[in-house]
Structures are given as structure tokens and as C-alpha cells.
Specification:
alpha/beta, eight-stranded mixed beta sheet, three-stranded parallel beta sheet, 12 helices
Length: 385
Amino acid sequence: LRDVEIRGLAVPDAGLFSEDQGDEFRYQDQFGNPYSRPLLNARVVDYHPYWLVGGHKALDAGREEAWAVDNLMITVSEPDDSGFVSVGCNVWDSIKTARRAKRVIASVNSHTRHTFGETTLHVSEIDAFVTDPRLVVPPAMEFDAADEVMAGIVGELVNDGDTVQIGVGGHTTGLVHHGLFADKQELSYFGELTTLGLVPLVEQGVFTGRGSRLHPGKFVATVVGNTPDEREVVYGNRAFELYSTEYLVDPRTIAQNEQITAINGALGVDLSGQTSAYAIGPRLYAGMGGHLGFALGAFLAPKGRYVAVLPSTAAGGTVSTIAAQFEAGQVVSVPREIADTVVTEHGVARLLGKSVRQRAEELISVAHPDFRGELRAAAQKQFYP
């Protein structure tokens, strides 16, 4: 093979991530992770800034810069009696992309079974089948001491009957682990992904979906279940519905959830309210995912709230995650114009409707005490004569 361009989410190294493969494979990563992050920052592989909404816009619009999908590889269940396969607990954009791709190659995995929502393709829509018997088991997670404190603080911002979204990450998973939703009632879920521990809360009656305007009585996401045991609960269970990212991460859709609380992890916030979700300066750490879509959707929802969650320090307590100013080259994920609520283990900063001076005061109050003095001095210099 020569001159093959691959776009997607990196999986364990299959021999593609090296300089000597550059003539054969040009890999464009769409979401930095432990497999691709070192090579992204070493510039061995390329990065494709990718929003889950409108990922095929250029192709659909017939633009000359469109990137056609010659081959799509997806994982599916075995066909049912009517000839339909399901992508199981991982929808992403697989169904939508399959209907745009020139050729669809389906890997049949016996551990993947049928789910409800927008999850099926007919065998007539698939060009080739292979088999893959692997069962992926994620590693155990460790939680930061700040997560337990932040769980209590964020919990005060979530009301019974709310629609909730929570992003995937170490700290957001820690919030759920430490009982963020444990004492809540009649919650609905409308999110891109799930964190470990959300599926059991459906079984326990915390997430009922009764107040959902778009999908009453349903728990809605594009990927559901973080362990094999959680996915076993989802398979064949009508309480769960899965939809494509084109629908679910679109701010216009999200905003129809009138009272949605969108909770997402951040890497840094500057004193004006700009938020970084997936880069440290110009260095890529993750990807945008649904963060911007849910921040904007919650902003547009009549009673919506966007919550950015982060511990007050990083790098073993040597760096403040509340920055006076972002460094040159910093990738900004959420602009300050829609900044809303920021939570650290030191409290809540409420930024919506406030000036840069007022925002600086709010953010300094939730910064680590060791850094508040220098942040106050910087705020004085930046925002006052």
C-alpha cells in the first residue's frame, strides 16, 4: 500500500505511528490519547481539528476540499434474523458515515450485541465482513483527592429533575465515583459519552428520563457503558437509546433540553474566562469531543448551565490551572463570551454576565491559595489603569 490517508481515533500502535511509515500511511489523529499523544507533540503524525458536529460538511456540500471516505472500518454485532447488525454501545458517527462511505468493512465482534436508537445497518449496506473476538477491558482508574471535594460542590449545582451531561475524564469520572448524583432524583441524561458508574444509577432509579423533553423515559448518549459489565446492562435494554454525534452533539439539539447542566473537565482557565479543554499551550493532550457543543448548547438552553471542572493545580501542585493569561499558542476550546461556571476544590466561580474584572475576582477566589497573590497582581496589571 502507498499514499493511504487515515483519520480517526488512535488505537494501540499497529505500526502506523512512525516516521518510516510516512510514505505509506499519512495518519491524521482526531483525538489525542496515550497512544498518539507523544507522536502528535513530536510532530511525527498530523492532527485534524475535528468537531463532532458537521464532520462531513465539506463532503455533503460538494466542496472541492472535501475528504471522501473510501473505506470505513466499524465494529458490529452478528446479524439478527432480519439481516441487521448493530454497532452496540458505540455509535459515534459510524451509521451516518457508513451511508457516505464508498466501502464499509465491518468487524463482527461476538461481545457486541443489539442496542436501541440509531444503531443498526442492514447487511446489504456492508461490503465486507471480518471477525474480531477481542473483549476490551479498560484499566482501573485512580482518583484525585480534589475530586471528592468537587463532587460535593458540583452536586449543589444539579437540581432534581435536571437533564445532565458529563464529559469523560479522570476528574469527571471521579465526581461520579464520589457520589455526585447519589442523592438526586428524576434526572435525565443527554450526553456524548458516559463515565464509569452512570449505568448503575439507571438501575438504581436516579436517572429515569421522566423529565426529558426529547426522549422521555430514556437515557441517551452516543457511547454508553465503560466496562463489560455496564455494557451487558445496556444490550437489549429499552431504557437506553444511542444516537449519532451529528444529532446528539449539535448545540441546536442540546439547547432543546431546557434545563440541562453540562459538566466537563478543563485543563485551564484564564482570568477572562477563556477555557482550554484539550491542549496545554500548543501541546495536544486530548481532543475537543463534545465539550464545545455542550457548552454552547447549555448556553442557548433557556435554563441551561455549563460547568467547567478542574483541580486548582497541576504538575504536582507546582502550576496553577487558573492562569493570569494563556501562553502564546494556547488552543482555546471555549471562548470567554460563553463562559459560565467554573468549579475547583476551592469553590464555585460564577462568570456568566460579569466583566473581566469581576471574573478575575471570582476565579482568584477558587484558585489555590499559593497562587492568589500573583494572580491578583496580574489582574491589577491587566484590567485596571
